[in-house]
Amino acid sequence: MKQVEFFFDVGSPYSYLAYHQLPKIAQAKGADIVWRPMLLGGVFQATGNSSPATIPAKGRYSNVDLERWAKHFGVPIQQNPHFPINTLQLMRGAVGMQLRSDAEFHRYLAAIFSAMFEHPRNLGDLQELAAVLEAAGISPALMLELVQDDRIKQTLRKTTEEAVARGVFGAPTFFVGDEMFWGQDRLHFVEAALA
After folding, report:
1. Which listed residue (12, 51, 62, 114) is catalytic?
2. Boundaries of each DSBA-like thioredoxin domain copy (predicted)?
């Protein structure tokens, strides 16, 4: 079975766009997606990279670019006024849900991505996060338990280190075999590699 690895962070708007597009591509090409939640902040730290938002002109351009891509993909997007949000707990949550079950993982991702980029909420605020989780049928108490679990912390750390070791410097990043593709604007190359 063909597969594509998807390294992402829920704080990355371009990961959000890829999250909506990649499943369509994988399905059309008969490929599996290997979901690889990583900590983008850790990747930035290890590689000396930084968010486009840290450069004012690039940040302004990125907002226009995101709207163009969202329109191109037919996906809703809104700027989250609470940015930047530290995604450490959110990404530990993603790893924890993934270790529990596919269904819970995908329900979690849908809720978090939506609250980040469709109906922006302050996910750095624990009460806001709890409300988003509850609305998605996910127990906030379970989330709290997961983000404190050492195995989950280690798994996120290892995936982030593996990403850096394999050349990842930003999100989203895809691998088809050893071939790396960075950015939702390279999805046509991912599609070609899967063909």
Report:
1. 12
2. 3-195
